[in-house]
Amino acid sequence: MENTNSTFSNFVHFHWGDSLTLGLYFLVVVCVGIWAIVRSRKNSAQDYFLASRSMTFFPIGASIFASNIGAPLFVGLSGSAAASGIGGMIFEWHAIPFILTLGWIFIPVFVACGVYTIPEYMEKRYGGKRLRLYLSVLSILLYIITKISVEMFAGALFIKMLFGWNMYASCILILAFSAFFTMVGLYKVGGYEALKTKYMDAVPSTVLLSNKTDDCGYPRSDSFSLLRDPVNSDYPWPGTLIFNIPSDIWFWCTDQIMVQRSLSAKNLSHAKGGSIVAGYLKILPFFMFVLPGMAARILFPDEVACIEPKICQSVCGNPSGCSNIAYPLLVMRILVPGLRGIMLAAMLAAVMSTMTSVFNSASSIFTMDLWTRFRKNASSLELLIVGRIIILVLAACAIIWIPIMQSGQASELWQYWQALMSAVGPPWGLVFLMGFFWKRTTEPAAFWGMLAGQLLGFARLVMTFAYKTPVCGSQDERPMFLRIHFLYIAAMETAVSAFVMVTLSFLTKPRTEEELCRVTWWTREQKKESNDPAQMNIENICFEDNSSWYLITTTVLRPFSSYESFQLQKAN
Questions:
Q1: Where are the transmembrane segments (predicted)?
Q2: Domains, the chain, ranges and CATH?
Q3: Do residues 252 and 102 make contact, with C-beta atoms less than 8 angstroms apart?
Q4: pLDDT tens, 288-330?
């Protein structure tokens, strides 16, 4: 075992073969990027933000999946697996039905009313300007604190091992090499059955040599359980299965990044097919990140599972714990030179893929919802230029936020990320849910209901940064409000927002049937008389291409149909 008093950068040795691999990879990516720019110039807002609405189902599904494969999974989910087992995976598999909900329920309405951005839809559904403005500003703020800064922070862990430069590309390499990497990691620990046994024995040597009687440093007894105790656990099952539903609706059905992928579909059939593909792919993180993270704890318990603040500070620079380094440490320790460089390139590619998705969606919201409010006659060229400039501004703001994030994330990036989303997501998801299915919901109800619930979440968030999370073995002296699990706080936010929205909806005037045309689930198929070419194009996009739908269903459902045929043949 390496000396834990050495710094993280000291026990990583980068081979010249890794440098060569990264250099070649970077060169290929740059060449492909230049070729793509020359081959297809995007001269309109629709071309730039929605890929000319010409995408087919498989690229859409892969893009939805790739947009979510970044720092929170590489560093966060694998770190959570190293610290507490498979429990964090519940958030990934719980997302699958909501990805399907995006394609079957939300996208048909978004396409029918012809919107570019989510705040634009809110204005069409509820009327007025303040809700659209509030959501636009909030969306950009959330991108900074929950996405861009998190990706940058995780990238910094890899940069400590490299030279100070990074890269971007697609997520194809990460799928292939993660599969190989998982097999190598499991081989090192003796396979999955051996992992289940050895994980429970993966305890730092400092804990074994001490006389402590608490559970600090030992794996959780429920490490191999997805549904955990509702009171004394890190992921209580009522929160993960029930109270997290509004947050999942926000993240998977109404977040600009996910919606924008599906809005680029050539028709609704391909949008739905993309959701099916993405749902299949969401099974993979268990094998790509959870199992390697648990293997890292078995192989390197003194570093990954350290509990002594001084040792953790020397290992990874975080006195609260070092579970976040599980995945990158495993890469640098068990892979051979050259292959290690390819894996690092793939990890950086996934991080940068997510970053480009976030930047594109944020620039869409800023240009379409904020800039056009002040520059009503802005040309398409001006919108494209502004959209690119705002990316630099967002990156600068995210860098400023990183030190604040580090002070409040404790030892697990995954829990920090989930807590952030639970602080703002439930009221957002509820506003969309009620707007879609209850025509009586009004603009004042939506605005004040969302604000009331999110004020509760923001209060919890501010207190999280103000009070340090106690280290293992010490008494938790934080206020009671902070000791309540963040998923239960999410339930409180939902209840407050629902009460305010229902009450104000009955006290204010609802919108007319004409105003609700094509903006709710019940009115999505209403005919809208218009000579506007854009509206006529929407009619074409809404058309269900039966031939495409047949191709999609036979492709993505083939494993199930083959299995059923096999069972019938076996029965006969």
A1: 20-38, 50-75, 95-119, 131-159, 165-187, 279-300, 342-362, 383-404, 416-438, 445-466, 486-508
A2: 8-553 (1.20.1730.10)
A3: yes
A4: 888 888 888 888 888 888 878 888 888 877 777 888 888 888 8
